[in-house]
Amino acid sequence: MTAPTFNALLFGLTGCLVDHGARTLPIAQQHSGLPERPSDLNHPDLLPNLLASADECAEPLPSVCDLLDDLQRQGMPCAWLDELPDAATQRLAAVLPSGLHGSRLNGSRPWPAPDAVWHTLSELQVDSLQGCVLIASDPRLLQAGLNAGLWCIGLATCGPLCGLALGDWQALAAAEREKLRAQATLELYRLGAHSVIDHPGELPACLSDLAIRRHKGEKP
Question: pTM of the full predicted structure?
Answer without folding.
Answer: 0.95
